[in-house]
Design goal:
Elements: E1 3-8, H1 14-22, E2 31-38, E3 41-48, H2 51-58, E4 67-73, E5 88-90, E6 93-101, H3 104-113, H4 124-136, H5 141-151, E7 154-162, E8 169-174, E9 179-182, E10 187-190, H6 193-196, E11 202-205, E12 211-214, E13 219-222, E14 233-235, H7 251-257, H8 259-270, E15 271-272, E16 277-278, E17 293-297, H9 299-314, E18 320-324, H10 325-331, E19 340-345, H11 351-362, E20 366-371, H12 377-381, E21 384-385, H13 400-420, H14 425-436, H15 438-446, H16 449-459, E22 464-469, H17 474-488, E23 491-496, E24 513-517, H18 524-535, E25 540-546, H19 547-553, E26 559-563, H20 571-590
Parallel strand pairs: 17-18, 17-19, 19-20, 20-21, 22-23, 22-24, 24-25, 25-26
Antiparallel strand pairs: 1-4, 1-10, 2-3, 2-4, 5-6, 6-7, 7-8, 8-12, 9-10, 9-11, 11-14, 12-13, 15-16
Helix pairs in contact: 3-4, 4-5, 8-13, 8-15, 9-13, 9-17, 10-11, 13-14, 13-20, 15-20, 16-20, 17-20
The structure holds 2-deoxy-2-amino glucitol-6-phosphate (AGP).
Length: about 600
């Protein structure tokens, strides 16, 4: 994640920008930079590494400008050096950005054709040039920015400063968070309330697609179409705590909402967005001769491993065995040396998973940790790690960590397939492009939250709930059931849809909601047959499928939740979001402690 901040103030902006960035370092610290508007134009100071390096670089520079923008970077495109550090500039424009511009390759080619010269490898720089071209065409700042925003695809938050306009700051939010801070004859932009707490606790959170035009005396918020909208200003209690709920009721809700941003950052770690190829870390082991993969984890992390099995076997053509760690650690599984053993864990401290890791090490496996906490025990003891970049996950129910685990496993499956020669370069680009689109699609699903909330109310209070899925949707059925039971305390089970007739269908009556996860993939028709078996017995069906299928079904006697049509390869990350929201809203309706459900802990560090 990156942190962005902007200030339209009454006194020197530079020290205040640095102070805000200090509170944003938890979002990334590969580099940092600020730009202020001085008498003779935009002045920019940047430095690689932590904020202290920027402070050193600022010492000899006299900046008196009262408006400016700042950025602390977690590198997505291009090395974490000064050239790629934000703010980025183009003639008359300075900009800071958090997120991914998916179509930046096409836009960069177009702007290069117009004679624009680029200094960095970042996607951000093309946005500065797009706005600069608009100014050159005679557009005013807000029109130049709005025109540029309409060209961008992806998930991003932006803060923009225009030379010659000392009382103007423009921000935009699409998939990555951005908030407005309200001061006394001052206004501000920030990634979250923490960044703004240095200046104010009066905050307005922008919503999806919003953009905002600030002066020191005014705040004008517009929707994606450019129509004025009202957003509620609130008083935050963001304190020294580095993580707060923002404008969400629970940490779980915030973490579900953060998924476009954190999935984007996780993908950007393992994908060369400029080339459209997977870009894995250098491992101390190779994949060319790999013959077997084992994946061991617990709970939600185990379901991520189960989904990955389909990718490893279908795309990389390698047998993949997935085990619950508490079972694996005592099974004394025979293991041929040289296999790849993968350990998936948000906390990196789960005792059963750690014990499994040690068993695999003793059996001469190459060990790879997929963890969200880089300094955790599992991370330290694995030969190699592929961290997720979900940021701190506070809610006991794992959500953003799960989708980031899937993102890492998808990139790994593609990388191994390329090493094994089972995936062509063209096929790789197709899958990578599908992955790059996931943050945007997840942001689209989040817009349906109110509809999902209504459906969740029909599930709340049930005695039993069934989740059905086939193929790679079967692990999602298991995950959906776990989400529901662990936070709402409703008994729920996930089943392979084809298994229903082998016993569980005896459970079906009109009191049992059956949630069917059915993307329009090669197993869709089979799953629909299972759904009809449920309907014939009076089961209360909730179908989660793609928009085209839902529209074809029309208004039916059962509830539907529709998600964007995507390449089936990325469906696990797409269909995870509706099942998370269903569980969350059912639990809220039930009045349970969503963030800290009874009997549970965030990290199970005991057997
Ligand atoms: C998931 O919502 C639960 N909190 C739990 O199943 C969790 O996934 C499991 O305990 C594994 O934790 P880890 O990812 O930190 O290893």
């Amino acid at each position: 994640m990156c942190g962005i901040v902007g200030i339209l103030g009454q006194n020197s902006a530079a020290p205040r920008l640095v102070e805000s960035l200090r509170r944003l370092e938890y979002r990334g610290y590969d580099s940092a930079g600020i730009a202020t508007l001085e008498h003779d134009g935009i002045v920019r100071v940047r430095a690689p590494g932590k904020l202290a390096s920027l402070e050193t670089a600022l010492e000899p520079v006299r900046l008196t400008g009262t408006s400016g923008i700042g950025h602390t970077r977690w590198a997505t495109h291009g090395a974490p050096n000064e050239t790629n550090a934000h703010p980025h500039v183009a003639p008359g424009v300075a900009i800071v950005h958090n997120g991914i511009i998916e179509n930046f390759r096409e836009l960069k080619a177009e702007l290069t054709g117009l004679g624009c010269e680029f200094e960095s490898q970042t996607d951000t720089e093309i946005v500065a040039h797009l706005i600069s071209e608009g100014l050159k065409d005679g557009r005013g700042p807000r029109h130049a920015v709005h025109a540029a925003l309409k060209r961008l695809e992806g998930a991003f938050a932006l803060a923009i400063m225009i030379e010659g306009y000392p009382d103007l700051l423009i921000g935009a939010r699409k998939g990555s968070p951005l908030a407005v801070g309200h001061g006394e004859n001052e206004n501000y932009l920030g990634s979250d309330a923490i960044a703004l707490a240095v200046m104010t606790n009066k905050v307005t959170y922008l919503e999806e697609g919003d953009w905002v035009v600030l002066s020191r005396q005014s705040v004008e918020i517009y929707d994606a179409d450019g129509d004025p909208v009202d957003r509620t200003m609130q008083h935050t209690n963001a304190s020294a705590l580095l993580v707060d709920k923002g404008n969400h009721r629970h940490f779980m809700a915030k973490e579900i909402a953060e998924q476009p941003e954190v999935i984007g950052h996780t993908l950007a770690e393992y994908i060369d967005l400029a080339e459209g190829k997977v870009d894995l870390p250098d491992f101390p082991f190779g994949f060319e001769n790999l013959e077997r993969i084992t994946i061991t984890a617990c709970g939600t992390a185990y379901y991520a491993g189960l989904a990955a099995k389909y990718w490893f076997e279908r795309v990389a053509r390698i047998p993949a065995d997935v085990d619950i760690a508490s079972e694996f650690r005592y099974r004394e599984a025979p293991m041929v040396p040289g296999g790849l053993s993968i350990f998936v864990s948000q906390s990196g401290e789960t005792a059963d998973t750690l014990a499994a890791l040690r068993y695999c090490q003793a059996n001469h496996q190459n060990t790879l940790g997929i963890v969200n906490v880089r300094e955790s025990t599992i991370a330290r003891e694995c030969e190699a790690i592929m961290p997720t970049f979900a940021g701190p996950e506070i809610g006991v129910a794992s959500t953003k960590a799960f989708t980031c685990q899937l993102a890492v496993l998808a990139c790994l499956a593609i990388g191994i397939a390329r090493a094994k020669g089972t995936l062509s370069s063209t096929e790789e680009t197709e899958l990578v492009d599908a992955l790059i689109g996931v943050p945007r699609h997840v942001a689209e699903i989040l817009k349906e939250e109110r509809h999902i909330e209504e459906i969740a109310r029909t599930v709340a209070g049930s005695r039993d709930v069934l989740y059905l899925g086939r193929g790679i949707s079967f692990p999602l059925a298991l995950e959906g059931a776990l989400k529901l039971k662990e936070i709402s305390y409703i008994h729920a089970e996930g089943y392979a849809a084809g298994e229903l007739k082998h016993g569980p269908i005896a459970l079906i009556d009109e009191s049992v909601p059956v949630i069917v996860i059915a993307p329009h993939d090669d197993l869709f028709d089979k799953t629909m047959s299972n759904m009809q078996e449920v309907a014939a017995r009076g089961g209360k069906i909730i179908l989660i499928t793609d928009k085209q299928t839902a529209e074809k079904n029309g208004s039916t006697e059962f509830a539907q939740i529709s998600v964007p049509v995507t390449n089936p390869f990325v469906n696990p990350m797409i269909y995870a979001v509706p099942v998370q929201l269903l569980a969350y809203h059912a639990a809220v309706f039930m009045g349970t402690d969503v963030d800290q459900p009874r009997n549970l802990a965030k990290s199970v560090t005991v057997e």
